[in-house]
């Protein structure tokens, strides 16, 4: 861990001690993930801090390659062993990064569940969908496998179900059928007997949600759960997640690149770019007063149903993790970039209200009046446009002038003066 990171960690902990922050279910601090490669270490996630309270929905937003899924995989302990992980991931005051595989397996699917984007590889093709979910229920709920072997549950499952056999298997099967009804799978008793290849994409996603909520998790991580679905099914799935959350007070980490979905279901948002969180805010505040040029570009790319507004897609791509630009990684795509943006990644600046001037900084980073990282009302941004006194750039109001001057077709290599 670097000296800078130690200093920052000490600052965060001091602030926690002094301010008695609200209870957090998930508290990620200064998480960095590095993978080995032939070209040398590749940092996929850098200094990510994020927290979620019980019952809260937090959106983790960004394009593909921004580090969202790596962050989720780190929480669940699903990264390959060669990955180097620095920082802290606390769940209900337990440090997940030091847990053994067995300990993590106990937590996964019980207290933390995940809905994956790609359902095809998430369901076992040789077991019926109902068997897979009922097994999850028996494993993680207080329904022991009394006298029912894996062979019986998989091969003889249909036979057992055809008889009056009031076992724990039967009870878990009843709960499975109830879950199928709950997630809107038609003819649930019949569909539970079918195999994954007999399901449509929407049905598979519903089945995955049934499995994810079968143990009433405290935290549900949904990784692009509606990306492959049409808008009607997407709306139904979002409603379903909302209902489950309300009923069980489940916290949700919703990973997506779709700002429209974020606006619909999230309480707070963290915007990621090139492995870093570049802006975070309550959802209403972020949509009303986006500060980071990347956030503004994401919002500009939301299709409008009202007509009259054109889609303004963001040009360029997230940089290759093996070849990130110096300084602010958004620089090559940023319409407001200046030469000073190349100097270093900007520190985090607080955003007070949309029109209120930022406090003028006197010296170095220690003078930044940053909001507490765990403050759910905090709006903060990593961009030199909002800094002052750090030798990078004068503080200035970026919104109108920068938007007017925005030239999305600017050559990607242009990191010079505006
Ligand atoms: S730091 Fe510079 S390049 Fe990065 S988002 Fe802000 S203005 Fe754009």
From TrEMBL:
Uppermost EC category: translocase
Keyword Transmembrane helix annotated: no
SUPFAM superfamilies: P-loop containing nucleoside triphosphate hydrolases (SSF52540)
SMART domains: AAA (SM00382)
Example GO biological process: peptide transport
Disordered: annotated segments: 1-24, 305-330, 350-418
Cellular component per GO, a single term: plasma membrane
Membrane topology value: Peripheral membrane protein
UniProt cross-references to PANTHER family, sorted A to Z: NICKEL ABC TRANSPORTER, ATP-BINDING PROTEIN, OLIGOPEPTIDE TRANSPORT ATP-BINDING PROTEIN APPD
Subunit organization: The complex is composed of two ATP-binding proteins (NikD and NikE), two transmembrane proteins (NikB and NikC) and a solute-binding protein (NikA).
Protein name, UniProt field: Nickel import system ATP-binding protein NikD
